[in-house]
Write a structure and sequence with these properties.
With about 700 residues, the chain is an alpha/beta fold. It has 4 domains: about 1-60, Single Sheet (N-terminal domain of TfIIb), CATH 2.20.25; about 70-140 and about 340-530, Rossmann fold (3-Layer(aba) Sandwich), CATH 3.40.50.740; about 145-335, Dimethylsulfoxide Reductase, domain 2; about 570-685, Beta Barrel (Barwin-like endoglucanases), CATH 2.40.40. It has 25 helices and 26 strands. Helix 3 (about 80-100) packs across helix 22, helix 10 (about 225-240) packs across helix 14 and helix 10 runs parallel beside helix 16 (about 305-320). The longest helix is centred in the N-terminal third of the chain and has 19 residues, at about 80-100. The structure holds iron/sulfur cluster. One of its GO terms (cellular component) is membrane.
Length: about 700
């Protein structure tokens, strides 16, 4: 170890922040991180990174890192050995399982942990605990996109690669603040737009950087995307601009679909979305004229009561216009966390085994039961949202939560935090004593990406390896080791010595990953799923068939779910999202000094017209009140927002936490919280 302190070392890793999946070399001396250096062969990013990937690493050496397991004794936590902590956890899990049954336990996996760790978390739930109560944070973001794609094209991932977004004639982004949330991808779009004549249409509530650059910026009423998408598709069909050859050869269900569009006339869409008839026609014309259209979308679409249906409508539009299976076309839900794609891919979902094979399918279940030598319930388990409700109802007694500050990031956090108080037993595994961990009975100290090996899957379905840069701090351990130790204590001898063994097991069991091999991903190598036995991978999906029995995609008729919206008492709509400098609730980025200095706290964006009406200005202190809670913050007057729409970055877990305000309403098909459908009223506390 002393030698290691002295030497300068260079190790390849993958960014721990967003789903772009930038890879780079990290230069270190001892625990000191000297610099981050992307390489031309970095498959997702070349020589680019954003500020988070470059400067957001101080958190790994933060004095706030947990270095020893903690066990609650009354009101305080005491430091204990791993042996003691594992004994407490395993005994308590055994007792609860014996007394109330397996389904009284739940597991939440982290979308920041590796694929191998995700695989083990679902295996722990299903094999060791005997429950399908397992979920991950895609429930808070992209589950609706996955649903929308499964219904129509059969895979819940991006249809192609970043190179396809770059080579498209037309890129449409919907509900995505791409320049701040997926900065390196945004740079690619900016370059293609500037140099290659790519057309860019941005549909959003906020006039952010990409909206400023766009050829056309469209601002619909909040939560009305399905309406304009359907109207534009109907107009395209009515004009005969559809790709009839593609539809005849490759898609089922056209007639029913056309019928379902009947009500989505231009007049109806104009009234419900506020987008003028001319702009609706322009949208249709742009798609018609483009040889290849790509649609990227994010939380503005998915975090709504009809998030899955709107994602479906996007896919329907692409099918109707033949925009699948060719380079420069397709659907691209942009994944938030570095491994939110992987956490779902590797089975941390209540209804799916790894590779999206259904737990309800007896053949699939049998394969896992024979391998794992246990019975697995045929019924899907509870998702995150249902777990919170089940705790309130007294059905769920224990929760094992990995790397997720659920008490801050779930919607309506007062409701979530009061659920934590009701748990009989709560284990949190994390880097820090998060606000959620404060409710735990046992806190297990985990190691971040720089301190372990494994793979992450970016938004392009690209698996990339990370190599160990630093030793685990103090007595912290990589999540895969912690979960393995727990499984051993509970009578299952997992005996993995290396993450590669875990991936080999997953690849064997799951068709999607049959050809995934560590050797193929050495260094800057990567593989995009699905990968066949001979290790061939897939940069572009659907070139010949769609993964349904008959090889054809399906039009899936959907109808608009009207958002709850504002009312007389709660007259302002509040939107939320990322800031470039911060990630998510900020648990990591607020511990990076340079980033914190630059952007120390969240602020509430207010339009100039609303500021004038309420007599406030930049710096004023206001309080926002919703039916579910209240949040205080300082005002930033900006033309990025218009009229009665406010915007609050989600990166503050202090008193300006957006989820004090959000409701328990969810997407009707996936239970993803409708974070973007929040109404508030404003109280002015201090004008100055
Ligand atoms: Fe790349 Fe995203 Fe990391 Fe920025 S946050 S360096 S865009 S992976």
């Amino acid at each position: 170890a002393a030698m290691r302190e002295e030497r300068i070392e260079k190790t390849k890793t993958v960014c721990t922040y967003c789903g772009v999946g930038c890879s780079f070399d990290v230069w270190t001396k001892g625990r000191k991180i000297l610099k981050v250096q992307p390489q031309p062969e970095s498959p997702a990013n070349g020589i680019a990174t954003c500020v988070k990937g470059k400067f957001g690493w101080d958190y790994v050496n933060s004095p706030e890192r947990l270095t020893k397991p903690l066990v609650r004794k009354g009101d305080i936590f005491v430091e204990v050995t791993w042996d003691e902590a594992l004994t407490v956890v395993s005994e308590k899990m055994k007792t609860i399982k014996a007394e109330y049954g397996s389904d009284a336990l739940g597991v939440v996996a982290s979308s920041k942990a590796t694929n191998e760790e995700a695989y083990l978390m679902q295996k722990f739930a299903r094999q060791v605990l005997g429950t399908n109560n397992i979920d991950n944070c895609s429930r808070y973001c992209q589950s609706p996109a996955t649903k929308g794609l499964f219904r129509t094209v059969g895979y819940g991932g991006d249809a192609g690669s970043f190179s396809d977004i770059e080579s498209a004639n037309l890129v449409i982004t919907i509900g995505s603040n791409t320049a701040e949330s997926h900065p390196v991808l945004a740079s690619k779009i900016k370059r293609a737009h500037k140099l290659n004549g790519q057309r860019l249409i941005v549909v959003d509530l906020r006039k952010h950087e990409m909206a400023e650059r766009a050829d056309l910026f469209v601002h619909p009423k909040a939560g009305s995307d399905l309406v304009w998408l359907s109207a534009v598709t109907k107009y395209i069909i009515d004009q005969g601009w559809l790709d009839i050859k593609f539809i005849n050869n490759r898609v089922n269900g056209f007639d029913d679909y056309v019928q379902s569009l009947e009500k989505y006339t231009l007049e109806y869409a104009e009234a419900e979305t506020g987008i003028s008839r001319d702009v609706l026609i322009q949208l249709a014309e742009e798609i018609h004229k483009a040889k290849g259209t790509v649609i990227c979308w994010a939380m503005g679409v998915t975090q709504q009561k009809g998030g899955s249906d709107t994602s479906t409508a996007i896919s329907n539009l692409l099918l109707a216009t033949g925009n699948y299976g060719r380079h420069g076309t397709g659907a691209y839900p942009l994944r938030g966390h570095n491994n939110v794609q992987g956490a779902s891919d590797f089975g941390c979902m209540p209804d799916n085994f790894p590779g999206y094979e259904k737990v309800a399918n007896s053949d699939v279940r049998k394969r896992y039961e024979e391998t794992w030598q246990v019975k697995i319930p045929a019924e899907p388990g509870l998702n995150n949202h249902e777990m919170v409700e089940a705790i309130h109802d007294g059905q769920l007694k224990a929760l094992y939560l990995q790397g997720e500050d659920m008490g801050i990031v779930d919607s309506n956090i007062n409701h979530v935090q009061s659920a934590f108080e009701k748990l009989d037993f709560f284990v949190v595994q994390d880097l820090f004593l998060t606000r959620t961990a404060e409710y735990a009975d046992v806190v297990l100290p985990a190691s971040p990406s720089l301190e372990k090996e494994g793979t992450f899957t970016n938004t392009e379905r690209r698996l990339q390896r990370i190599y160990q840069v630093l030793e685990p701090l103090g007595n912290s351990k990589p999540d895969w080791q912690i979960t393995s130790l727990l499984a051993d204590r509970l009578g299952f001898n997992w005996s993995y010595s290396y993450p590669g063994d875990i991936m080999a097991e997953a690849a064997k069991l799951s068709e999607l990953f049959h050809g995934v091999r560590y050797e193929k991903m050495e260094g800057y190598g990567s593989q995009q799923w699905p990968a066949t036995e001979d290790t061939t991978d897939s940069s572009l999906l659907f070139t010949e068939t769609f993964p349904f029995d008959d090889g054809k995609a399906r039009f899936f008729p959907v109808d608009w779910t009207r958002p709850t919206g504002t009312n007389d008492e709660y007259d302002l709509h509040i939107n939320n999202g990322r800031l470039l400098e911060h990630f998510h609730e900020g648990n990591m980025t607020y511990k990076s000094e340079g980033i914190k200095r630059k952007t120390p706290r969240a602020f509430i964006e207010v339009s100039p017209e609303l500021a004038e009406e309420r007599g406030i200005k930049t710096g004023s202190l206001i309080r926002l009140v919703s039916p579910h809670g209240a949040a205080k913050g300082h005002v930033l007057v900006t033309e990025r927002v218009a009229g009665n729409e406010l915007y609050l970055p989600m990166n503050d877990n202090g008193e300006t936490a957006i989820n004090q305000l959000t409701s328990t309403e969810t997407d009707k098909d996936t239970d993803t919280p409708a974070y973007k459908d929040t109404a508030v009223r404003m109280e002015v506390l201090e004008v100055e």
